[in-house]
Amino acid sequence: MSVIVQARGVVKEFAAGDERLRVLHGIDLDVRAGELMLVVGPSGCGKTTLISILAGILSATEGAVRVGGRDLAGLSSGALAAFRRETVGFIFQQYNLLPSLTAAENAAVPLVARGERLSHAEKRARAMLERLGMGPHASKQPRQLSGGQMQRVAIARALVHDPAFIVCDEPTAALDAASGRTAMELLSDAARSPGRAVVVVTHDPRIYGFADRLAMMEDGRVTDVLDDPDSIRKLVH
Question: Is 32 within 8 Å of 2 (Cβ atoms)?
Fold first, then answer.
């Protein structure tokens, strides 16, 4: 199975007054094509920092990250922005939908950002929303949608430009059990597309069963990677 994302020796430090705070301590991690990987661990252990580096939002202090064979450290700021537009789909915990735009317009944002005509981008976005059961709500603004519906718009926005890598930060945190399961089913289906990988940061044990592999983090380190379904299921109990 090919590797979409490869991290080697990833260290991240932030300035803390006159000192440096080390948040990640030499992480090695592979994310394979066709898989959904969950990243779990206590609050503050570095999960969101890690996926932000893998997605090219933050840069590593040390180490190397390759996504789709591209070395992120070797990209200029402009090339890195283009990489994020073309290669990465983001699903944020609070959805980050623009309140003045309709669901279709929100879902079309990645296409418009890379230069597609608004009419064409919105047509593609509406088709994606239709696939996610959101066709009847495509013209509604976020304030007219439920939490589960806004999450589907966020998923449509992440998928509409056919990215190779999708990163999700606590996508089920604000959802009830049924909506959370639906969201994870959609992400699991997305991960099965050839040449794509999905990484989900979560505190929600209800969704552990969706993982092909589960990376456990503590104190800025990946302490274990589980790929046995029975071992993953035991974490729920």
Answer: yes
Question: Do 163 and 199 touch, CB atoms closer than 8 A?
Answer: no
Distances from the Cα of 124 to the Cα of 17, 65, 170, 186, angstroms: 47, 31, 26, 18
- CA end-to-end span of the chain: 31
Domains of the chain and any CATH numbers = 3-234 (3.40.50.300)
139-198 per-position pLDDT tens digit: 999 999 998 889 889 989 998 998 999 999 988 877 778 878 888 888 898 898 878 999
CA 143 – CA 140 distance, rounded (Å):
8
Residue 25 has pLDDT above 90, yes or no: yes
67-81 pLDDT, tens digit per residue, is 998 999 989 999 999
Q: Which of these, 228, 158, 227, lies nearest to 190 by C-alpha position?
A: 158
Nearest to 38 by CA among 193, 178, 229: 229
Ordered alpha helix ranges (H), the chain: 47-54, 77-87, 103-107, 109-113, 118-131, 147-159, 177-191, 229-234
Instruction: For residues 97 and 126, give the distance between their C-alpha atoms in angstroms, rounded to a whole number.
Output: 16
